[in-house]
Amino acid sequence: MKKNISKRLPQRTCVACRQVREKKQLVRLVRNADGSVQVSSGREDGRGAYICRQASCWQEGLKGDRLERALKTKLSQDTRERLREYGSEIGQE
Fold first, then answer.
1. What letter does residue 93 receive in the DSSP assignment?
2. Residues with Cβ < 8 Å from 31, sequence gap 6 or more?
3. Is residue 6 assigned to a domain?
4. What's the number of domains the chain is made of?
């Protein structure tokens, strides 16, 4: 007889709205060893932070220092602008 074991899905918190959601519903940003920040396309090494797939969360996360605190790094203006563009594109889907 097999037991009905429901697998718990990993959950993460959005750095902008602070809502806890399933990991796959969020976008992971990673600070690499060289200090650069990028959108994670898989399981990359580095310090990570999660943001909802909503444009408002991307704007809020990039507006202050929430994302910088979560990643423990300073975002350059170029990186901030690149992430802002990515957030506006993903928010339109």
1. -
2. 37, 46, 47, 48, 71, 72, 73
3. no
4. 1
